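During the no-cost extension, the postdoctoral fellow (Dr. R.K.) reprocessed legacy sequence entries with the updated structure-token encoder. One reprocessed record is reproduced below for audit purposes.
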Amino acid sequence: MRKQILTLDKICNDFIPLLEQRGIILTRNHKHQSSILRVDKDKFDKIIYNILSNAVKYTPKGGQIDVSTNVFNKYFHIAIRDSGLGIPKEQQKFIFKRYFRAKNVINSNEVGFGIGLMVTRELVKLHYGDIWFDSHLNHGTTFHVKFPLPDVQYIDDEVSEVSDMNSISDGNDEIIITNQSKKPKILIAEDNDELRTLMIKNLSSFYQIHHVENGQQGLLETAKFIPDVIVSDVMMPIMDGNEFCYEIKNNIKTSHIPFILLTALSTNEHKIEGYKTGADTYLEKPFDLDLLRSCINNLL
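Re-encoded structure tokens follow.
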């Protein structure tokens, strides 16, 4: 049976509306191999999403992005090539550094914090893989990622069992992914007992809910189980939501976690303060619980 990482195609498909809007052509070239790649699905998705996101962000209208895969020397290789801005040669050695953004990128209209590629490299390392790139100014960049293949392949029965739970298939190929929980893990940090209880009651059918009363407790809880999304009030005792978000986003082990801030402080100044800490989404109180759930789903 031929195995392929179709989650890669699924992520590509998620970008199609934006690609069409920007007039960017996406091509894919998967060389089918009889092998199984064992990865943590959440981390794998974040790796691919971060690289593809940069490719889309910095490729001009009418440009092209190519995604290809291959197996070589017991490694599964993924290459994502774009026809974008490219990275100046003298700045390439800094590209995986925290908060570094190339000068030509800073001068563009695109917004970024300069931590995505650093986090991506750390996630690749957790899989004992490697990441590198080739880039030429004004001619685009190719990011290469490789993951080691397991020495022992699954037997057919095991493949079938794992496939039933975690595969995405187009009829020709199959994704084999491990460590995927049934429900996404959500951490809620809210000091108002009534609101916290209401959120737990309305969200527990869709997610695994963990809850705390302030940011300090949130940091301790995050270290225990690594949530998929954090939802936090801004105004809390001991450690408020902005400080909680800052600590999460500036820790290499947790900086990839999407963070939603909830607040009754609706001025632009307060929103700017929240976004500066690295928050992904900002919801004003009172908010609709269905809107909160939509925000969570968009960040998963």
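The two ends are 30 Å apart (CA to CA). Confidence is low (pLDDT under 50) at residues 1-5, 99-114, 152-181. The remaining legacy entries will be reprocessed before the final report is submitted.
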